[in-house]
Amino acid sequence: MSQGQEPQLERLTFFSDAVFAIAITLLVIEIHVPHPDGHDDAAWLHALAELLPHFFGFVLSFVVVGAMWAAHHRVFGLLHRYDPALIWRNLALLMAVAFMPFSSALMSTHPAERIPEMFYALNLLVGGLLQYRLFRGALRAPYLRGDVTGAEVATIRRRSLALPMMSLLSFVLAIWIPGPSNLPLMLMPLVVLALARGIRRTGATPAT
Amino acid sequence: MSQGQEPQLERLTFFSDAVFAIAITLLVIEIHVPHPDGHDDAAWLHALAELLPHFFGFVLSFVVVGAMWAAHHRVFGLLHRYDPALIWRNLALLMAVAFMPFSSALMSTHPAERIPEMFYALNLLVGGLLQYRLFRGALRAPYLRGDVTGAEVATIRRRSLALPMMSLLSFVLAIWIPGPSNLPLMLMPLVVLALARGIRRTGATPAT
Amino acid sequence: MSQGQEPQLERLTFFSDAVFAIAITLLVIEIHVPHPDGHDDAAWLHALAELLPHFFGFVLSFVVVGAMWAAHHRVFGLLHRYDPALIWRNLALLMAVAFMPFSSALMSTHPAERIPEMFYALNLLVGGLLQYRLFRGALRAPYLRGDVTGAEVATIRRRSLALPMMSLLSFVLAIWIPGPSNLPLMLMPLVVLALARGIRRTGATPAT
Amino acid sequence: MSQGQEPQLERLTFFSDAVFAIAITLLVIEIHVPHPDGHDDAAWLHALAELLPHFFGFVLSFVVVGAMWAAHHRVFGLLHRYDPALIWRNLALLMAVAFMPFSSALMSTHPAERIPEMFYALNLLVGGLLQYRLFRGALRAPYLRGDVTGAEVATIRRRSLALPMMSLLSFVLAIWIPGPSNLPLMLMPLVVLALARGIRRTGATPAT
């Protein structure tokens, strides 16, 4: 049944891709068109300035969900089998991802309030933990392809700690300084990028 | 034309995956950002507590639609042919799935009222019956792959009775106890999971 | 470059599938959750009865767009090449499909008024003509696979006249009898089904 | 690991296709169903006439995003490798694409005002520059397939200047003549079409 697994695994990843793609694109629909009182440039610039937290929230959430997709893409490229347990761990992760448009809109609408900021970080923390659990379950026999080295797996597992750690930090910071509390999350993609570039440079995994 | 069937069947499943993925992700857009009167923690916790039925409805619908996708994924992995009759049975199922964001929002907005709860259970009952009809029509010659055993088919057909049975039970319960009437649906994924694990343990189908 | 064409053609069809899938699933988000004055069954049944045109519009549009997807699926399964001209004919068709959620909501919100009904039929008429143009352009050398018979092509071209004819009829009827004017569209899927079954029975093309 | 790259590259393109497809289909949901005061034809025609900027904005954005997808499709068909740097350049482009439903709605709702028109052109300018950066980075070793000629690459790079140039022109024009400022964007697809047809005619790349 090995020949039956590959296309089915492909379908599982495409379903996941679709959920990631829809969640990441739905982030924009919570930004509503403003109707400023005046029609001059000053009124418009003021109206757009009021939307800045929404623009910022869109970019932050897009980058974080994009990074989650890139990690998912990387891990599933290393697998050649799966089973229902993996499907459900994957669905649990997708649930946290599909919830992001709400959390992102909540945080963007109330950008300096404690509970919305904590709620947003909590969504990412849950997503990060579910991602770690999925990757931990998936990156081993019998799911893992035979040609993947232990070093590669160790690197990915280390990298997948970034999201839960940074969102926990963001959650704690939001208790005292809601708003700037997102700083750890903003730094996270840079960390991921740096890690990705480091890995590419060493040549262990040339791509993915 | 056998070589022409496989990619076309793949396209049919990807279209289905896309509809499942969009419906499951649209569940969140009916949850609206609250605007509490105060800005303190108490006002926010109160506002989020009022959203609890929406969060609950999101999780319940996500798990049920996710289970429907997992079943669809399992069944279509066993096919190697299809025809227009199968396409239309499939489209009928997808119609019930695409309707779920409305039913879920209706039930979440009015979590303790009889008709919305019954409406939600009815949507799932129709979806469950259409799924049973699709699987019954698909899991046989000439659609079924030659290497699929009769035992596998019997198991899947038995499993696909879970959704119509549980949603019928939920529909009837909603007449007297709307709200707790969702209990059978909450138990359903566990039943599916247990069945899936049972099947995996016996080794008949190692995955999916 | 023949080996480079197949995966690219596949990608073109998957992009089309995604647009069809999103448009067909977005049909539901224009149905808004009612908030009846009372909480008894009578108030709820009245509220749901008022939504009947929306439920009807959802089903009608789902079936019509589903039939358009099934035809697109059938035709693209017969191709093995494409070029930019085909891409743009395809994008023109997808534009009419992507516009359907608006037309469907307009017609469902004002189910007995002339202009909304004509607007809906016009959207389908334009979609039907763009579909006919795409199929006419695609079902010939150098796009068509070598093993497709002239009889198959003739059948598909005849079938693809159904949508423009029925929506033109619906458009004209809407001038005098808006509402019942949708009858030709309701009959169309049956016609398509009948044709599809007829083709299957004769055995010329065993499956889509 | 060359055999592992192809399906992973395919998944990257399908994820991109999904984001393009969702963004292009979400353009319609910002067009709201009108509720005219009267029910006669005159009231309806007036109501639909007021929606004309929305219809125009939908068509313009659909064609521009469609052209961006067609260019993305063309370029990724020439690759056989990728790496994290390409993934992030691609995600940056997708972010600009996913933002289009907001910019398009802003421009359509305020069709003759300076700042909304400039904002729309700016979104396309950023998207065009990110697209140029992605293509510049992708159309070279080690990503490029061995059978792609330098002439093909030069043509595509020249073509991908069209969007940033035309949107910059549109941005500048919007300062003095908001509204007609979209003219360069309307002409752009024709330019792209002309170029595509020119390429096909010379026979260098028969399709894509």
TrEMBL record, chains A, B, C, D:
The chain crosses the membrane at residues 12-31, 51-71, 91-112, 118-135, 161-177. It is a multi-pass membrane protein. Coiled coil: none annotated. Pfam families: TMEM175 (PF06736). Signal peptide: none annotated. Its main location: membrane. It is found in: Membrane. It catalyses: K(+)(in) = K(+)(out). Keywords: Ion channel, Ion transport, Membrane, Potassium, Potassium channel, Potassium transport, Transmembrane, Transmembrane helix, Transport. The keyword Transmembrane helix applies. InterPro entries: TMEM175-like. The keyword GTP-binding does not apply. Belongs to the TMEM175 family. PANTHER family: ENDOSOMAL/LYSOSOMAL POTASSIUM CHANNEL TMEM175, ENDOSOMAL_LYSOSOMAL PROTON CHANNEL TMEM175. This is TMEM175 family protein. It comes from Luteibacter sahnii.
